[in-house]
Amino acid sequence: MAEARTEQAPPLQRQTTTTTTAAAASGMPDFKQSVKLKYVKLGYHHLITHGAYLLLVPLPGLVAAHLSTFTLRDLADLWQSLQYNLVSVVVCSTLLVIAATAYVLTRPRPVYLVDFACYKPDEERKCSRARFMNCTESLGTFTPANSEFQRKIIERSGLGDDTYLPEAVLNIPPNPSMANARKEAEMVMFGALDELFAKTGVRPKDIGILVVNCSLFNPTPSLSAMVINYYKLRGNIVSYNLGGMGCSAGLISIDLAKDLLQSHPNTYAVIISMENITLNWYFGNNRSMLVSNCLFRMGGAAILLSNRGSARRRSKYQLVHTVRTHKGADDRCFGCVTQREDEDGKVGVSLSKDLMAVAGDALKTNITTLGPLVLPMSEQLLFFATLVARRVLKRKVLSFDVCSEIPAWARSELKDGSSKRVESGRLKG
Predict the structure, then answer these.
(1) Can you say how many angstroms the Cα of residue 191 is from the centroid of all Cα atoms in its chain?
(2) 404 pLDDT exceeds 60?
(3) 3-state helix, strand, coil in the chain (%, to 5)
(4) C-alpha span between 30 and 20 (Å, rounded)
(5) Residue 49 belongs to what H/E stretch?
(6) What percent of the chain has pLDDT over 90?
(7) Do the Cβ atoms of 153 and 288 come closer than 8 Å?
(8) What is the DSSP string of 344-408?
(9) What span, in angstroms and rounded, lies between the C-alpha atoms of 35 and 364?
(10) How does strand 111-118 pair with strand 317-319?
(11) Are 168 and 175 in contact (CB under 8 A)?
(12) Cα 194 to Cα 119, 179, 374, distances in angstroms
């Protein structure tokens, strides 16, 4: 570490000496040394964000100054003028009332996230890495190479020793069945909902919208019907059961509930997002299907949304924007997650190697769409200026954030080739 400091000191000393000499020669202070760029940027953000308000500051003073010149004679003349233009006054007032009424009736209703609850299974369902490998090796259906393959995946997956699997999978031998799958679904859904109702104090009869999503388990009666029957929800409830839509179904459910809350005033919406493991455990030796065994676990969550005005005070968040991008038209995206049979006729979920690239591309598209909706105007102006400099003027420029945090001596020694490396390294960091 001492050697690194010794190597970096000369460029810093040279740059400081050069800057001081140039400043002394011009007779001007060195603003780069006296003012930090982050404060300049902070001032810029405040100026752009509150610029409209700053422009309106003199307006009350001008209005007050103008009103101070009014006399009783002026007010009498104004009243007489309005009397002679009664029709115009009535027409303008009527149009104003109609416009205000139309705005109130057609404006989007605010949607609030009141609270949520995540289901936590019993301790008996806990599956550590050692227990997972013990169950895997005890089955005898996996080859030694594939058992070792699963060991490597489970160690690199990021899952700890506090994940959970259903009883039917942990049993030796496993006993997956429709009855056990229903039992798992009921434990997850009812457990999360019981906690949600206890936290919020909302009665099941108050729920007007119910959306349940589970990609791989779609029994008859549906999962949403199971919830309605168990809690004896009201007969006019609007219920949906989403299946086969993968991990994105959770966000799709929120988007659906948001749209439904726009047409059903003064109500609550419950979203249950879960997956079922019992009937979807893979016992074959196709490695693209074995990955799902190492990644997916038992669990679920219930979310309470509302468009009631009284929910604003106690809600955690307000749902402002939802962005959806469907990549199903692309064959590579369409086939990245597929439930199918392997060569031996065993059903499993195949995960393609393109999954991460496809997910990253969809995320990039969503962020591009969401950016103009959530970024402040100051950041949008900076992005536009940088884009013009790069695409139109063909200039090699760094973003404002990157430049403000790179030392002055390092910026002075950056060349065209190294600028890209510094920018990418900063963004990754």
Answers:
(1) 25
(2) no
(3) 60, 10, 30
(4) 8
(5) helix 37-49
(6) 43
(7) no
(8) TS-EEEEE-TTHHHHHHHHHHHHHHHHHHHHS-HHHHHHHHHHHHHHHTS------HHHHHHS-H
(9) 35
(10) antiparallel
(11) yes
(12) 9, 22, 35
For residue 338, how far is the Cα from the chain centroid? 25
What average pLDDT score do residues 78-83 get? 74
Beta bridge mates, 337: 351
Answer for the pair 178, 279: CB distance below 8 angstroms, yes or no.
yes
C-alpha distance from residue 52 to each of 58, 65, 377, 383, 398 (Å): 11, 21, 12, 21, 29
* CA torsion through residues 228, 233, 234, 236, sign: negative
Q: Is the pLDDT of residue 247 over 80?
A: yes
Q: How many residues does the chain have?
A: 429
pLDDT at residue 14 is higher than 70: no
Give the three-state DSSP class for 161: coil
As a whole number of angstroms, the distance between CA 215 and CA 221 comes to 16
Task: Give the model's pLDDT for residue 315.
Answer: 92
Average pLDDT over residues 275-302: 92
Band of residue 397 on the pLDDT scale cut at 50, 70, 90: low
- In angstroms, the first-to-last Cα distance of the chain is 21
Please report the DSSP string for 200-255 in residue order: H---GGGEEEEEEE-SS---SS-HHHHHHHHHT--TT-EEEEE-S-GGGHHHHHHH
Helices 377-391 and 37-49: crossing angle, nearest 10°?
A: 110
Interatomic CA distance for residues 429 and 418, integer angstroms? 16
H helices present in 268-347, as ranges: 287-295, 331-334
Whether the per-residue pLDDT at 246 is higher than 60: the answer is: yes
Query: Please, is 22 exposed, middle or buried when counting C-beta atoms within 10 Å of its C-beta (0-12, 13-18, 19+)?
Result: exposed
Task: Give the bridge partners for 147, in sequence order.
Answer: none
Of the candidates 284, 279, 281, the one whose C-alpha atom is nearest the C-alpha of residue 342 is 284
What is the pLDDT at residue 189?
96
The Cα–Cα gap between 94 and 86 comes to 12
